């Protein structure tokens, strides 16, 4: 969830460091969410980061805030005229970063790679921004409201698959560890474009940008290097999580609870009733409680027949359910 184009938030040639501070604070919030997902993925905790409504709301708030700041920053910077060379350079940088995320996640998570995540959404929004910024504020707000409502009231199987997954209108959304489609996520970007107008007028009415509060300068520095932070933080945090999992003892209760949560999430994604999934996943877990399966994090092929028998005995309510409790949680599908 990195910087948008352009990176420097300014109005009338004067920087607005408060925007950089806000972006820096969001970067820390993003890192806290990602590290929580990482340690849940390696089953150090059973927090249900991929499925719990509060965690999902936290992730959505962070993503929406980044897109809002992206729209706001573009409005601030284009006020003095759009520099084509600078704009093109920033677009190329963001495109390369988005491509790096896609390639990297395809290598690590081939079944849930990021084909259209937050950087891809920012790139598309930035490509549209020179046209969108010319629209009246009232029209931009109407478009934002429509973007929020559309995926809630209309989806179609015609948009299923990766080719159309970036729209967010599929009947069955594709699996991805970070899916940030156009609908509804263009909405906060449009809102940021609108919010930039009053901020410009307020900034231009002053003799200079307001000073930062003491102790927040480092957040401004972080915010000005957000793209680099985004690209580096997750490999480092995930490596730390894997390292901790290698040295910390296994907690069987966490292993069992994590399996039930992952199983329930995948079961409901396949269209089964929540109550049915709850009973099914609990049944499978109970069926293998005496096998020692919860005493290790790494997958053991010798347990696969036991799991297959348990799935059949409990009556799988949908196809494609996880049969390996040590395989880690499914993609969060953002």
Summary tags:
334 residues, disordered N terminus, 2 domains, two-stranded antiparallel sheet, mainly alpha
Describe the protein's architecture and organization.
The chain has 334 residues and is mostly helical. It folds into 2 domains: 10-244, no CATH class; 252-314. It has 12 helices and 2 strands, in the order ββαααααααααααα. The protein has helices at 17-41, 53-78, 84-108, 118-132, 137-153, 162-165, 182-204, 217-224, 226-247, 252-269, 274-287, 304-314, and strands at residues 10-11, 14-15. It has a two-stranded antiparallel ribbon. A hairpin with a 2-residue loop joins strand 1 and strand 2 (14-15). The longest helix has 26 residues, at 53-78. It starts with 9 loop residues before the first strand and ends in a 20-residue tail after the last helix. The model is unreliable at 1-13 (pLDDT under 50).
> Roughly how many Å is the radius of gyration?
22 Å
Biggest sheet architecture = 2 strands, antiparallel
**Which structural class should the secondary elements be placed in?**
mainly alpha
Strands of the largest sheet, in order across it? 1-2
Q: Into which percent range does the helicity of residues fall? A: 55-70%
Oligomer designation: single chain
Query: DSSP strand (E) fraction?
Result: under 5%
- Secondary structure: number of strands: 2
How would you spell out the order of helices and strands?
A: EEHHHHHHHHHHHH
Total count of domains: 2
* C-alpha end-to-end distance: 12 Å
Entry summary:
With 334 residues, the protein is an all-alpha fold.
């Amino acid at each position: 969830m990195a910087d948008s184009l352009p990176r420097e938030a300014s109005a009338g040639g004067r920087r607005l460091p408060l925007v950089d501070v806000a972006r820096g604070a969001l970067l820390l919030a993003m890192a806290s969410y990602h590290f929580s997902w990482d340690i849940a993925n390696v089953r150090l905790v059973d927090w249900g980061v991929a499925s719990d409504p509060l965690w999902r709301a936290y992730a959505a708030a962070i993503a929406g805030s980044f897109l809002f700041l992206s729209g706001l920053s573009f409005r601030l910077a284009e006020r003095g005229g759009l520099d084509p060379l600078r704009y093109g350079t920033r677009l190329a940088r963001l495109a390369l970063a988005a491509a790096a995320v896609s390639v990297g996640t395809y290598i690590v998570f081939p079944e849930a790679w990021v084909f259209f995540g937050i950087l891809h959404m920012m790139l598309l929004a930035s490509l549209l921004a020179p046209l969108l910024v010319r629209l009246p504020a009232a029209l931009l707000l109407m478009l934002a409201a429509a973007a929020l409502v559309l995926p809630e009231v209309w989806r179609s199987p015609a948009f299923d698959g990766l080719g159309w997954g970036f729209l967010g209108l599929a009947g069955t959304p594709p699996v991805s560890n970070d899916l940030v489609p156009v609908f509804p996520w263009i909405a906060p970007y449009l809102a940021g474009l609108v919010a930039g107008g009053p901020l410009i007028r307020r900034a231009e009415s002053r003799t200079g940008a307001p000073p930062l509060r003491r102790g927040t300068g480092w957040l401004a520095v972080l915010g000005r290097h957000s793209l680099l932070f985004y690209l580096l933080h997750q490999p480092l945090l995930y490596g730390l999580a894997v390292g901790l999992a290698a040295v910390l003892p296994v907690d069987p209760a966490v292993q069992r609870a994590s399996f039930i949560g992952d199983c329930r999430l995948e079961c409901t994604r396949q269209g089964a009733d929540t109550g049915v999934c709850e009973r099914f996943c609990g049944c499978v877990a109970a069926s293998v409680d005496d096998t020692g399966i919860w005493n290790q994090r790494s997958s053991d092929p010798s347990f696969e027949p036991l799991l297959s028998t348990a799935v059949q005995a409990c009556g799988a309510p949908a196809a494609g359910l996880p049969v390996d409790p040590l395989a880690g949680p499914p993609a969060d599908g953002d």
